[in-house]
User: Fold this.
Amino acid sequence: MIGLFDRLARPFLHALDPEDAHRLAIRMLQFAPLPPPARDDKRLAMRVFGLNFPNPIGIAAGFDKNAEVPDALLRTGFGFVEVGTITPLPQPGNPRPRLFRLDADRGVINRLGFNSQGADAVLRRLAARAQSGGVVGINVGANKDTPDRIADYVQLIERFAAVASYVTVNISSPNTPGLRDLQQAAVLDDLLARVIDARERVAPNAGPTPVLLKIAPDLSLPDLDDAVGIARSRRVDGMIVGNTTLARPPSLREAATAKQAGGLSGRPLLPLANRMLAETYVRVEGVFPLIGAGGVDCGAAALQKIRAGASLIQIYSGLIFRGIGLVAEIKNALLAALEGDGQSNLQSNLADYVGADAASVTAEDWPQ
Assistant:
């Protein structure tokens, strides 16, 4: 059923304006008669942030911005879903057009700008599915015109801790002016101190809620040093590396579209995203786990991401070009790696691969 749905829908969706196609995909997931997911091979299971994931493949924030279809996405085979980015108040985001495909590069540029129906609408949906099971995290951000961005994050932690598997503090979007300034050391320390305090304050009623920090792949290494050091000292539960990039690799073939303002994702992001992931992994020193995002559009790329330091991975742009069948492809590739392709030195645990190549990745020339 899922394979048929994918084969029929993808060519049609790709013929539409990207944002219209995205909205239609959400509507189709709302009404498609999807069966329960097949049980995953137990070798793909991971326990991360104190949560049990049936497989390490998640869908990144940005697809289900308003928590309209988290359970449908879980039924398509994802091990977890991250909804959002959610802002306290509804906001329209940036003017359209604001989403662009780079077909020849298998990339996407977006400048959506945290378009969100707001916390009230999302909270109602998550509360209604609170007993449905599955790992559903939320990604939170500040309103564009808020007078106190840190207060926005604190408010969202307090409101969503009870209905989310985890909460991601997103300070890495390039499409809200000044948001990435929250990655600066003094501001980040204040932000995480107040966010963790809010999490602890509501924990007696909400229970333990992991808090993750999502950073940009465009950080300098000294800024990454600061971000990791502060995340460790403030005892966050993990980090997501990373968001879209403002860089434009010289290898891009869609030169005209590449001039659009916004963050670049998809295949062209993979080398930079993996380098920043590995750099983060060696700095974290095992204190907390990482989610790797950016550029995964095949099984081999997913395995690279894990070997660079990711305990879990997230995909999104790859689905635009590969369809939902990408999830099954990644699972098969990971299982093939675990089986050693017939070799005698079998590794039976996916965790054995996490960070296996991190040191060597950080020794390579910086990606262009």
Summary: Residues 342-346 have pLDDT under 50 and may be disordered. The chain is about 40% helix and 15% strand.
